[in-house]
Design brief:
The chain has 386 residues and is mainly beta. The protein has a six-stranded mixed sheet with strand order 9-13-14-12-11-10, with no helix packed on it. Strands 3-4-5-6-19 form a five-stranded mixed sheet, with no helix packed on it. It is elongated, with a radius of gyration of 27 Å. 25% of the residues are buried.
C-alpha cells in the first residue's frame, strides 16, 4: 500500500515593536499527518505504516498496516469494549443476510457494465474519481467475462463498504436499517469481523471482506480477569452421549439450558463455525452432538444443557445430556492426560482415540488448555482458525 505524505511548513513572521526597536520573530510550524508513523534515520523520515481503527470481536483496536499491505496487519493496542448500540445496514445477498456498520459504508450505488472493469479474476467498480471498489461475488465463481454478470440484470445495486482502507462493492437484493449491539469475543477470530445482536437477541454476521491471510498479530496480550466473588468448589459431573465428564467447578463459566448453535455461511459460501451467544458474548468453540453419532462407544441422546467452560482466555461449550454437582472425586482412575503425542503410524493425536475408550474424563485447571487444544484438533470439533 503506497501513501503520499505531504509535509506542510508554514513560516510566520511576526513584527513586534518594543519602544523604538523593531524585533522580528520567525515562527516555523510543521504539520505532519497524525496517522502516519515515522522512523527518523539521519535527516530523512521513512514512512513505515498507517494506523487504522478497527472494531473486531466487540473491541476497538488500533490496527497497524505495514508497507507489505494487508498481509501484515497487527493490533498494537486494544482501546476498549464497544458497548453502545449502532445503526447497521442489513442486506440480503445470495449468501444470506449480512450487516455492516453505517459509519463504514460509503453508500449505495448502481453498478453497470460501463462502470466496471475486469482485472484478472476480479471485477472492479468505479465508484467515483477517487474510489475504486472490488466487487464481492457472494458464493458465485468469478466470471471469465464481466458481461456474464449483467446478463440477467443490466443494473445491479451494490453497497460500498470500507475495511482497513480497502473498498468493496457488495451486490444486494434488499437493504434495511437495523439497530444492534456488538457481542464480545474472548479473542478475535478470522471467520468473522463481528457478531451483532439485534433487539430480539438474534445474532447478525458482519463478515471480513478483506482477504486476510491470518489473524492480525496482537502486539499486546491481554485477556479479561474476571473477579471471583465466591470460590467455586467441587466438581460438576456431566454426560456427553453417555460418556462421563468430571469438570472442576472453577472452570465453569455458566450452565445453560441447551442452546442450539447458530450456523451460517460466509460471503464466499464457506460454512462458518457454529456458535452460541450468552450474556452478550459469542462462543464459537462448540462441540456438536452429531460428531459423536458414528462412534459406537457413545449413546446418542438429546442434550439438555450447554455448559460453558473458561480458563486463561480459552473457552469451550459442551452439550451435556445430564449434569450434577459432587463435592469430591470418586476413587476410579480417570483420563486426564491430553498433551499432544503424535502417532507416527496414523499421524493422529492419541488423545483423539482416547476419547473413545471407556472410563471417565477429568478436566481441571492443570489440563484444561491441553484438553481444548487436543479436543479441538479431533474429529469431534468443527475446527478453529487459531
Amino acid at each position: 500500500m503506497l501513501a503520499i505524505v505531504v509535509v506542510v511548513v508554514v513560516v510566520v513572521v511576526v513584527v513586534v515593536t518594543v519602544g523604538v526597536d523593531v524585533v522580528v520573530v520567525v515562527v516555523v510550524v510543521v504539520a505532519v499527518p497524525s496517522d502516519v508513523a515515522y522512523l527518523n534515520e539521519g535527516v530523512e523520515a521513512e514512512l513505515l505504516s498507517v494506523y487504522s481503527p478497527v472494531r473486531h470481536g466487540g473491541f476497538f483496536h488500533t490496527g497497524l498496516i505495514a508497507q507489505e499491505g494487508l498481509s501484515s496487519v497487527s493490533y498494537v493496542e486494544r482501546l476498549g469494549q464497544d458497548v453502545l448500540s449502532y445503526f447497521l445496514y442489513e442486506i440480503e445477498t445470495s449468501a444470506g443476510k449480512l450487516v455492516f456498520d453505517k459509519t463504514e459504508c460509503v453508500g449505495c450505488r448502481q453498478m453497470t457494465l460501463d462502470n466496471t472493469t475486469l482485472v484478472d479474476d476480479s471485477i472492479w467498480f468505479q465508484v467515483n474519481e477517487e474510489i475504486q471498489a472490488q466487487v464481492v461475488l457472494c458464493g458465485i465463481e468469478a466470471p471469465t467475462m464481466k458481461n456474464t454478470l449483467f446478463q440477467d440484470k443490466p443494473l445491479i445495486d451494490v453497497l460500498i463498504i470500507e475495511q482497513l482502507g480497502e473498498h468493496f462493492a457488495l451486490p444486494f437484493l434488499s437493504i434495511k436499517e437495523v439497530e444492534a449491539v456488538c457481542s464480545k469475543m474472548t479473542t478475535p477470530r478470522l471467520w468473522a469481523k463481528n457478531i451483532w445482536l439485534d433487539r430480539d437477541g438474534k445474532p447478525l454476521l458482519e463478515p471480513w471482506l478483506v482477504k486476510l491471510e491470518r489473524l492480525p498479530e496482537a502486539v499486546y496480550f491481554t485477556f479479561d480477569k474476571v473477579p471471583e466473588c465466591t470460590v467455586k468448589k467441587g466438581y460438576y459431573l456431566g454426560q456427553v452421549c453417555g460418556r462421563f465428564f468430571w469438570i472442576d467447578a472453577s472452570l465453569m463459566f455458566s450452565v445453560l439450558a441447551y442452546q442450539q448453535p447458530y450456523e451460517s455461511s460466509n460471503v464466499d459460501g464457506s460454512v462458518l463455525p457454529p456458535f452460541i451467544v450468552h450474556d452478550g458474548r459469542c462462543f464459537d468453540r462448540v462441540v456438536l452432538i452429531n460428531r459423536f453419532a458414528n462412534k459406537t462407544q457413545f449413546v446418542e441422546k438429546d442434550p439438555v444443557f450447554s455448559v460453558i467452560l473458561e480458563w486463561a482466555g480459552n473457552t469451550l461449550v459442551l452439550p451435556f445430556d445430564a449434569c450434577d454437582w459432587k463435592a469430591e472425586l470418586p476413587s476410579e482412575v480417570m483420563r486426564q492426560d491430553f498433551y499432544k503425542s503424535l502417532d507416527s503410524t496414523e499421524l493422529q493425536y492419541d488423545q483423539t482415540t482416547a476419547l473413545w475408550e471407556s472410563g471417565s474424563i477429568l478436566i481441571d485447571r492443570t489440563n484444561f488448555l491441553s484438553f481444548v487444544d487436543g479436543f479441538w484438533s479431533s474429529s469431534l470439533s468443527f475446527g478453529s482458525d487459531d
